[in-house]
Amino acid sequence: MIKIDTYYIQHISVQIRHLPSGDIAIWHPFNLFLADIIDGICRNRGRWDRQYNNWIVFSQFKFGVISEIKSKGVQHG
């Protein structure tokens, strides 16, 4: 079972899936405000996956990325 954490930034959900590889996948609904925030956090720490419309953040950066997302929002679930 893949663990999924959900955070809310400005009341918009951001889902972080912990992948078997050790990487994380970060997804949020389409929102330009939130896209600017998440892109800024993830850029140069992973890659954009067009097929799933989410960021794949490499394992060596995941704790820093999660920490930055936590600092911007509130966790639920």
Provide an overview of this structure.
The protein has one domain. It is built from 2 helices and 6 strands. It is an alpha+beta fold and 77 residues long. It has a 6-stranded antiparallel beta sheet with strand order 4-5-3-2-1-6, with helices on one face. The chain has helices at residues 32-42, 62-72; strands spanning 4-9, 12-18, 24-27, 46-49, 54-57, 74-76.
List the secondary-structure elements in sequence, H or E: EEEHEEHE
- Overall domain count: 1
Which stretches are poorly predicted, pLDDT < 50 over at least 5 residues?
A: none
The whole-number mean of residue pLDDT values reads: 94
Number of helical regions? 2
Strand content: 35-45%
**Rg value:** 11 Å
Structural class by helix and strand composition: alpha+beta
End-to-end separation in angstroms reads 15 Å
Widest sheet: strand ordering: 4-5-3-2-1-6
Helix content: 25-40%
The number of strands is 6
Overall shape: it is globular
Largest sheet: 6 strands, antiparallel
What is shown here, in short?
Helix content is 29%, strand content 36%.
Which terms would index this structure?
77 residues, six-stranded antiparallel beta sheet, alpha+beta
What's the helix and strand layout?
Layout: E1 4-9, E2 12-18, E3 24-27, H1 32-42, E4 46-49, E5 54-57, H2 62-72, E6 74-76
Antiparallel strand pairs: 1-2, 1-6, 2-3, 3-5, 4-5
